[in-house]
Amino acid sequence: MEFQDKVLKCIDCGADFIFTAGEQLFFHDKQFKNEPKRCKSCKAKRVAVLGATSPPVANHVSNKIETRTKCSQCGKETTVPFKPTQGRPVFCRECFQQRRTTAVSA
Questions:
Q1: How far is the C-alpha of 65 from the C-alpha of 67, rounded, in Å?
Q2: CA-CA distance, 27 to 66, in Å (whole number)?
Q3: pLDDT at 59
Q4: What is the b/e burial string over 67-96, where b = at least 16 CB atoms within 10 angstroms of the residue's CB?
Q5: Hey, where are the domains in the chain?
Q6: Distance between CA atoms of 19 and 5, rounded to whole angstroms?
């Protein structure tokens, strides 16, 4: 498949910008369905405002699992970021750190 440079219009500033053949190949390889909507400078401004790694707050859905359980070592009630598997011990943060440092120094 051969790509040719395209002229697109930025939805923010209205300026024309080039969607290069190389960029099109990249989009094709990544199976992106949509062409870019913003020129490089408007995209940079948007990333700076929204934050490079965090999605917009309105679209953010947390899939984090929190499970309340008792520590297998000290018996203290704690929460863990996973669903415990039956038969496997679960430790509170303090006991986990203690076991970790003991294992490293042994």
A1: 6
A2: 37
A3: 52
A4: eeeebeeeeeebebeeeeeeeeebbbeebb
A5: 6-59, 67-105
A6: 6
Helix (H) or strand (E) holding 45, with range, is helix 40-50
Q: Which residue do the tokens 């430790």 mark?
A: 91
Using DSSP's 3-state secondary structure scheme, residue 86 falls into coil
How is residue 87 written in tokens?
């038969």
**Torsion angle defined by CA atoms of residues 78, 83, 85 and 89, in that order, rounded to the nearest 10 degrees:** -20
What are the tens digits of pLDDT across the range 40-75?
999 999 888 887 555 555 555 556 778 889 999 999
Q: Which single residue is written with the structure tokens 């219009």? A: 9
Distance CA 32, CA 21 (A): 14
Between CA 15 and CA 36 the distance in angstroms is 13
3-state secondary structure of 33: coil
pLDDT in tens, 18-46: 999 999 999 999 999 999 999 999 999 98
